[in-house]
Amino acid sequence: MTDVIKNDIQNEDQGGTPFKSGFAALIGRPNVGKSTLMNALIGQKIAITSKKPQTTRNRIRTVYTNEAGQIVFLDTPGIHKAKNKLGDYMVSAAESTLSEVDVILWLVEPTDYIGAGERHIIEELKKTKTPVILVINKIDMVKKELILTYIDAYRKELDFAEIVPVSALKLDGLQILIDCIMKYLPCGAPFFDEDTVTDQPVRQIVAELIREKALRCLEEEIPHGIAVTIEQMKYKKRLVDIEAVIVCERESHKGIIIGKQGAMLKKIGSLARRDIEELVEKQVNLKLWVRVKKDWRDSDYLLKNFGYNPEEKE
């Protein structure tokens, strides 16, 4: 803990500004930009992003610290209609977060149409006493004069603590959002050291980076039924050896992931290696394999094996 933080906490009664520390959940429908926003807020890529919905499968915690306080962000899976046990787990992980945080950030896209998915979230939010900040993301994609129309449409549906338009992609409005979040956090000591940006194990982040590249490279060719496991991760003086397996549900998918003469797998590995090297700050030797686990998204055993445990609350 820094001297600045210590002094802020100890001198609260002497008229100083108290240090604040608390938890903020990012919720919303799939593909509204929750992971992009979280990465932008902390200034580092932790959560993977993709144009495909339901990219985030676990709750991911990241940490933002400044002189005023510390915000622990929980990026949740998108709230959607579940189609399998993995989907059930994702929705449960998102909805159970609402009662465990100090403030909720509900991300929506800039529109005045409030569909069935958004109305389901509104009903869930009405059940909680936690302050809700409406974050209208992707404002860089619409005319500025229309933003007030979108704000009015949502304001009629729920009593929001704050409404903040932002562009996670263009880094617009992020400091305003940080300041708004700080208002609703309790005073207290930080939960993490000031240098901490995430509590996620490096192996888990590496697995997710590989999955991100696979999703992007395969585009519409493969459904969302892939997972990545890290079989081995050895640190050497200037090198990290990583062996990973991409798990898919069908033999036909395996052929597509590998590609002609292994071209697709090499492409996925090459793209993933760049991000992993930036993460571990070492040269990376990455070896990838592909295995078939039929219908793994409906197997309790395999879900737990791949890190998706419905029984876990943290």
Rounded to an integer in angstroms, the radius of gyration calculated over CA atoms is 21 Å
> Major sheet, described briefly?
6 strands, mixed
Mean pLDDT: 80
How would you name the CATH homologous superfamily of the largest domain?
A: P-loop containing nucleotide triphosphate hydrolases
CATH topology title of the largest domain: Rossmann fold
Number of domains: 2
Number of helices: 10
Q: Regarding quaternary structure, how should these chains be classified?
A: single chain
Gross morphology = globular
Question: What structural class do the secondary elements suggest?
Answer: alpha/beta
CATH architecture of the largest domain: 3-Layer(aba) Sandwich
| Number of distinct beta strands | 9
CATH class group of the largest domain: Alpha Beta
Order of helices and strands: HEHEEHEHEHEHHEEHHEH
- Taking the alpha carbons of the first and last residues, their distance comes to 24 Å
Biggest sheet, spatial arrangement of strands: 2-3-1-4-5-6
